[in-house]
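ARCHIVE CARD
Drawer: 12
Card no.: 0347
Subject: one protein chain, sequence and derived structure
Cross-reference: see card 0346
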Amino acid sequence: MVGRTKTESAATRAALLDAAERMFRDRGVAHTSLAEVAAAAGLTRGAVYWHFRDKADLFEALCVRAELPMETMLASAGGKRHKDPLGALSELAVTALTRLAADAHTQAVFDIIFHKCEFAAEFASVAQRRQTTDSGCLAHVERLLEQAVAVGQLPADTDTRLAAQTMKAVMVGIMHEWVQRPEAFDLAHAAPMMIEVLIAGMRERPPRRASKGSTSTSSRRKRLSVAS
Protein backbone atom coordinates (compact mmCIF):
# COMPACT_ATOMS: atom_id res chain seq x y z
CA MET A 1 0.00 0.00 0.00
CA VAL A 2 2.85 2.40 0.87
CA GLY A 3 4.58 1.65 -2.43
CA ARG A 4 1.37 2.26 -4.31
CA THR A 5 0.84 5.57 -2.49
CA LYS A 6 4.36 6.73 -3.39
CA THR A 7 3.81 5.71 -7.01
CA GLU A 8 0.49 7.55 -7.15
CA SER A 9 2.04 10.64 -5.55
CA ALA A 10 4.88 10.61 -8.09
CA ALA A 11 2.38 10.23 -10.92
CA THR A 12 0.32 13.17 -9.62
CA ARG A 13 3.41 15.34 -9.35
CA ALA A 14 4.49 14.42 -12.88
CA ALA A 15 0.99 15.21 -14.20
CA LEU A 16 1.11 18.64 -12.58
CA LEU A 17 4.55 19.34 -14.04
CA ASP A 18 3.38 18.25 -17.51
CA ALA A 19 0.29 20.47 -17.23
CA ALA A 20 2.36 23.44 -16.03
CA GLU A 21 4.77 22.91 -18.89
CA ARG A 22 1.93 23.07 -21.43
CA MET A 23 0.18 26.03 -19.81
CA PHE A 24 3.32 28.09 -19.20
CA ARG A 25 4.44 27.54 -22.77
CA ASP A 26 1.04 28.44 -24.22
CA ARG A 27 0.11 31.37 -21.99
CA GLY A 28 3.29 32.43 -20.23
CA VAL A 29 4.17 31.92 -16.57
CA ALA A 30 2.72 35.21 -15.30
CA HIS A 31 -0.63 34.68 -17.05
CA THR A 32 -1.20 31.14 -15.79
CA SER A 33 -2.78 30.46 -12.41
CA LEU A 34 -2.29 27.39 -10.24
CA ALA A 35 -6.02 26.67 -10.55
CA GLU A 36 -5.59 26.53 -14.34
CA VAL A 37 -2.63 24.18 -13.99
CA ALA A 38 -4.67 21.91 -11.72
CA ALA A 39 -7.61 21.92 -14.15
CA ALA A 40 -5.32 21.12 -17.09
CA ALA A 41 -3.98 18.13 -15.12
CA GLY A 42 -7.49 16.99 -14.20
CA LEU A 43 -6.74 17.56 -10.51
CA THR A 44 -7.78 19.90 -7.72
CA ARG A 45 -5.96 23.04 -6.64
CA GLY A 46 -5.30 21.28 -3.33
CA ALA A 47 -3.24 18.70 -5.20
CA VAL A 48 -0.99 21.49 -6.47
CA TYR A 49 -0.40 22.82 -2.96
CA TRP A 50 0.28 19.32 -1.66
CA HIS A 51 3.29 19.08 -3.98
CA PHE A 52 4.37 22.71 -4.45
CA ARG A 53 4.44 25.75 -2.14
CA ASP A 54 3.46 28.21 -4.85
CA LYS A 55 3.86 28.94 -8.55
CA ALA A 56 7.53 29.79 -8.16
CA ASP A 57 8.17 26.40 -6.53
CA LEU A 58 6.29 24.68 -9.36
CA PHE A 59 8.25 26.58 -12.01
CA GLU A 60 11.56 25.79 -10.28
CA ALA A 61 10.67 22.08 -10.18
CA LEU A 62 9.90 22.24 -13.90
CA CYS A 63 13.33 23.74 -14.61
CA VAL A 64 15.10 21.20 -12.41
CA ARG A 65 13.39 18.27 -14.18
CA ALA A 66 14.68 19.47 -17.55
CA GLU A 67 18.12 20.75 -16.60
CA LEU A 68 19.32 18.42 -13.83
CA PRO A 69 20.63 15.60 -16.07
CA MET A 70 23.02 17.94 -17.90
CA GLU A 71 24.03 19.66 -14.66
CA THR A 72 24.92 16.27 -13.20
CA MET A 73 26.93 15.26 -16.28
CA LEU A 74 28.83 18.54 -16.31
CA ALA A 75 29.60 18.38 -12.59
CA SER A 76 30.86 14.81 -12.99
CA ALA A 77 33.07 15.73 -15.96
CA GLY A 78 34.44 18.82 -14.23
CA GLY A 79 35.46 16.76 -11.21
CA LYS A 80 37.48 14.17 -13.17
CA ARG A 81 40.91 14.26 -14.73
CA HIS A 82 40.84 13.74 -18.50
CA LYS A 83 43.60 12.78 -20.91
CA ASP A 84 41.70 14.74 -23.57
CA PRO A 85 39.93 17.60 -21.76
CA LEU A 86 38.89 19.41 -24.94
CA GLY A 87 37.49 16.16 -26.26
CA ALA A 88 35.49 15.73 -23.05
CA LEU A 89 34.22 19.30 -23.30
CA SER A 90 33.25 18.78 -26.94
CA GLU A 91 31.37 15.59 -26.06
CA LEU A 92 29.46 17.37 -23.28
CA ALA A 93 28.49 20.26 -25.54
CA VAL A 94 27.28 17.94 -28.31
CA THR A 95 25.32 15.89 -25.76
CA ALA A 96 23.62 19.03 -24.43
CA LEU A 97 22.54 20.11 -27.92
CA THR A 98 21.41 16.69 -29.10
CA ARG A 99 19.47 16.22 -25.86
CA LEU A 100 17.69 19.49 -26.49
CA ALA A 101 16.86 18.34 -30.02
CA ALA A 102 15.47 15.01 -28.79
CA ASP A 103 13.75 15.83 -25.49
CA ALA A 104 10.37 17.59 -25.61
CA HIS A 105 10.49 18.56 -21.91
CA THR A 106 13.85 20.29 -22.35
CA GLN A 107 12.61 22.13 -25.44
CA ALA A 108 9.50 23.33 -23.61
CA VAL A 109 11.42 24.56 -20.57
CA PHE A 110 13.99 26.41 -22.67
CA ASP A 111 11.18 28.01 -24.67
CA ILE A 112 9.48 29.10 -21.44
CA ILE A 113 12.69 30.49 -19.95
CA PHE A 114 13.70 32.30 -23.14
CA HIS A 115 10.32 33.63 -24.22
CA LYS A 116 7.49 33.05 -21.73
CA CYS A 117 8.83 34.11 -18.34
CA GLU A 118 9.43 37.44 -16.65
CA PHE A 119 11.55 36.99 -13.54
CA ALA A 120 9.45 39.20 -11.26
CA ALA A 121 9.83 39.39 -7.48
CA GLU A 122 7.77 36.25 -6.89
CA PHE A 123 10.28 34.26 -8.94
CA ALA A 124 13.37 35.56 -7.14
CA SER A 125 14.21 32.05 -5.89
CA VAL A 126 14.03 30.70 -9.44
CA ALA A 127 16.25 33.48 -10.77
CA GLN A 128 18.72 32.86 -7.92
CA ARG A 129 18.83 29.16 -8.70
CA ARG A 130 19.49 29.88 -12.36
CA GLN A 131 22.35 32.23 -11.41
CA THR A 132 23.80 29.58 -9.11
CA THR A 133 23.43 26.90 -11.78
CA ASP A 134 25.01 29.12 -14.43
CA SER A 135 27.94 29.93 -12.14
CA GLY A 136 28.42 26.26 -11.33
CA CYS A 137 28.32 25.20 -14.98
CA LEU A 138 30.75 27.96 -15.91
CA ALA A 139 33.14 26.78 -13.18
CA HIS A 140 33.00 23.17 -14.41
CA VAL A 141 33.74 24.25 -17.99
CA GLU A 142 36.63 26.39 -16.75
CA ARG A 143 38.07 23.39 -14.88
CA LEU A 144 38.06 21.38 -18.10
CA LEU A 145 39.80 24.24 -19.90
CA GLU A 146 42.38 24.47 -17.10
CA GLN A 147 43.01 20.75 -17.58
CA ALA A 148 43.45 21.43 -21.30
CA VAL A 149 46.14 23.96 -20.40
CA ALA A 150 47.79 21.49 -18.04
CA VAL A 151 48.09 18.76 -20.71
CA GLY A 152 49.27 21.16 -23.41
CA GLN A 153 46.11 21.37 -25.50
CA LEU A 154 45.93 25.12 -24.84
CA PRO A 155 48.71 27.68 -24.19
CA ALA A 156 49.73 28.42 -20.61
CA ASP A 157 48.46 32.00 -20.83
CA THR A 158 44.97 31.03 -21.98
CA ASP A 159 42.27 33.10 -20.29
CA THR A 160 40.22 30.09 -19.22
CA ARG A 161 37.49 32.21 -17.63
CA LEU A 162 36.90 34.17 -20.84
CA ALA A 163 37.10 30.96 -22.88
CA ALA A 164 34.41 29.38 -20.65
CA GLN A 165 32.19 32.45 -20.95
CA THR A 166 32.62 32.36 -24.74
CA MET A 167 31.63 28.69 -24.81
CA LYS A 168 28.55 29.42 -22.73
CA ALA A 169 27.54 32.37 -24.91
CA VAL A 170 27.80 30.30 -28.09
CA MET A 171 25.84 27.40 -26.57
CA VAL A 172 23.06 29.65 -25.30
CA GLY A 173 22.92 31.39 -28.67
CA ILE A 174 22.56 28.10 -30.55
CA MET A 175 19.86 26.89 -28.15
CA HIS A 176 17.95 30.16 -28.25
CA GLU A 177 18.03 30.31 -32.06
CA TRP A 178 16.93 26.70 -32.49
CA VAL A 179 14.14 26.80 -29.89
CA GLN A 180 12.79 29.94 -31.54
CA ARG A 181 12.99 28.48 -35.06
CA PRO A 182 13.52 24.69 -34.96
CA GLU A 183 12.74 24.44 -38.67
CA ALA A 184 15.81 26.55 -39.48
CA PHE A 185 18.25 23.65 -39.14
CA ASP A 186 18.55 20.06 -37.93
CA LEU A 187 20.13 20.57 -34.51
CA ALA A 188 20.89 16.90 -33.86
CA HIS A 189 22.74 16.64 -37.17
CA ALA A 190 24.45 20.04 -36.94
CA ALA A 191 25.53 19.88 -33.28
CA PRO A 192 28.81 17.92 -33.79
CA MET A 193 29.89 20.23 -36.63
CA MET A 194 28.98 23.40 -34.71
CA ILE A 195 30.96 22.30 -31.65
CA GLU A 196 33.87 21.13 -33.82
CA VAL A 197 34.15 24.65 -35.23
CA LEU A 198 34.05 26.14 -31.72
CA ILE A 199 36.68 23.77 -30.27
CA ALA A 200 38.93 24.16 -33.33
CA GLY A 201 38.82 27.92 -32.90
CA MET A 202 39.63 27.51 -29.21
CA ARG A 203 42.67 25.38 -30.07
CA GLU A 204 43.90 27.73 -32.78
CA ARG A 205 43.21 31.14 -31.24
CA PRO A 206 42.27 30.87 -27.56
CA PRO A 207 41.71 34.09 -25.62
CA ARG A 208 44.90 35.11 -23.80
CA ARG A 209 45.42 36.77 -20.48
CA ALA A 210 46.84 40.26 -20.91
CA SER A 211 50.43 40.57 -19.68
CA LYS A 212 51.47 43.49 -17.50
CA GLY A 213 53.56 44.84 -20.32
CA SER A 214 50.72 44.78 -22.84
CA THR A 215 48.40 46.42 -20.31
CA SER A 216 50.79 49.30 -19.68
CA THR A 217 51.39 49.68 -23.41
CA SER A 218 47.66 49.87 -23.97
CA SER A 219 47.35 52.49 -21.23
CA ARG A 220 50.14 54.59 -22.79
CA ARG A 221 48.40 54.43 -26.16
CA LYS A 222 45.15 55.61 -24.57
CA ARG A 223 46.93 58.51 -22.85
CA LEU A 224 48.65 59.52 -26.09
CA SER A 225 45.35 59.33 -27.94
CA VAL A 226 43.69 61.60 -25.37
CA ALA A 227 46.60 64.01 -25.38
CA SER A 228 46.58 64.31 -29.16
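Annotation on reverse: The two ends are 85 Å apart (CA to CA). Confidence is low (pLDDT under 50) at residues 215-228.
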